């Protein structure tokens, strides 16, 4: 009696990437890789509202490794750490970790596919996106704390 353990990879009937191992086909996009890894955001909608949902099912081992890497990244002075802290304030630590894990996996995909080194954007990238909005935010916060704020341009020496 033949057991299932004697099946070759080419005879595998599961919906797992092992079906493509013998053909060596890469994943066509970063979205496919993120989906396979299980770090895609869930997509649950009802009555036109986007509802909270967990991440998609995927490779639990890769997801765990990515999460550990992200926890290490959060203690650095980088773009991904800034993204984590920005998201953790609004969404919570665990959701922020999965969001940054998704970003990290997309970065890894593009670095390997395009064979170009990663270019760090820096921890102040989000502040540089819209300096006017950042100024308004901090002026408003200081006024809420009871300070009178008057902005003057800095003299560049």
The Cα radius of gyration reads 22 Å
Low-confidence stretches: 1-10
Number of helices: 6
Helix percentage: 40-55%
Terminal residue distance: 85 Å
General form: globular
Task: Report strand order across the widest sheet.
Answer: 1-2
Structural class of the helices, strands and pairings? mainly alpha
N-to-C SSE string, H for helix and E for strand: HEEHHHHH
**Quaternary:** single chain
| Secondary structure tally: strands | 2
Q: What is the arithmetic mean of pLDDT?
A: 82
Percentage of β-strand residues: under 5%
Largest sheet, in brief, is:
2 strands, antiparallel
Topology:
Elements: H1 30-37, E1 44-46, E2 49-51, H2 60-73, H3 79-91, H4 93-114, H5 125-129, H6 131-144
Antiparallel strand pairs: 1-2
Helix pairs in contact: 1-4, 2-4, 3-4
Features:
disordered N terminus; single chain; 157 residues; mainly alpha
Could you give a quick summary of the protein structure above?
The protein has six helices and two strands; from the N terminus they run H-E-E-H-H-H-H-H. The chain is mostly helical and 157 residues long. Helix 1 crosses helix 4, helix 2 crosses helix 4 and helix 3 runs antiparallel to helix 4.
Architecture overview:
With 157 residues, this protein is mainly α. It contains six helices and two strands. The chain has helices at 30-37, 60-73, 79-91, 93-114, 125-129, 131-144, and strands at residues 44-46, 49-51. It has a two-stranded antiparallel ribbon with strand order 1-2. Strand 1 (44-46) and strand 2 (49-51) form a beta hairpin. The longest helix is centred in the middle third of the chain and has 22 residues, at 93-114.
